[in-house]
Write a structure and sequence with these properties.
By secondary structure, the protein is mainly beta. It has helices at 2-29, 70-75, 158-168, 279-282, and strands at 36-43, 52-62, 88-102, 119-133, 139-152, 185-202, 207-219, 222-234, 259-278, 297-310, 312-321, 332-342. Helices cover 14% and strands 47% of the residues. The protein has a twelve-stranded antiparallel β-barrel.
Length: 343
Amino acid sequence: MAKQHKQLQAALLLAVVALLLAFWGGRLAHAENSGIFTVVMENDVLHNADRHFTHGSRFSYYSEKSRDDWVSRTAELMPWFSLDTDQELWRSSIAIGQNIYTPSDISVSHLQTDERPYAGYLYLGLGAVRVVSGEEPGTGMVGSFELQLGVVGPWARARDVQTWWHSEVISADRPEGWDHQLRNEFTVNLYWDRQWRYSLAESGRAGVDLVPHAGLALGTVATHLAGGLTWRLGKGLGNDNGPPRIRPSLPGAGYFVKTSKVQGYFFAGGEIRLVGRNIFLDGNTFRSSHRVSRKTVVFDLQYGLVISYRKVKFALTNIARGREFEGQPSPDFFTAFSFSYQH
């Protein structure tokens, strides 16, 4: 166990170093512009649960506004990114994240054949966010693209993280069934999202808008089509495209515009996904592993609050995710917290 903890600490240290290099590298290259560092944590502990998608963490850095970096040029070759206009700006991104999935009962050591598998996912994400101002006031479009390269299985170190967290931080039950987790596998996945903003009302006190969106995922981790709508009420609605989240989810990004005053808004939204593959339910791609019967249609509902002031933005999101597999007794509920800093 001591050796595993040392390996985990080394992996986390490498992740922090990589993000710091990206942060300072961008800062030195374009000191007159602003990069954005974002942390997102999602967990079900506030809902007195410890099951299914039980934890996710994501650390990301969004570059300065640019059109010349290789990530933006590559993303422009992708579908939905080919439109060229002077009304747009780009930010490329790099991210490191980990997701943890478990069955409902983590206190038993035997294989639970009617429950979803234990699984961990560790990934590196390279992407771009493209913001285009609309011709009409209060309108616009935000597109995002991300390539995720990662691993599932013991290589993802989810067992070590959850065991350490339960024993050293929250004194919860020790997870006993990780011997049945998905097997080691390298993964690759592409994600596209597009959002359109339509202002319904604007005043000095507050505004109201609607943000419909569409999305597509292709790869060995997830393949799905998605569509949905978000309603927002408050100030500074044009300064971002919603709270950042961990995929799969309603789209959002760490991108935001600095403000001189406190601004914030309430939001509520939903998404429907037509799912063709979910490795955390379907099991390993090329090897035999535990799996369950996946549902084809899955929904997410969310609501929450975003507050921004000067260089920082906070967001709190409550999420309800519908049943994802046959035999799942009820939807899942979890909470996302994010912090973004623009240097």
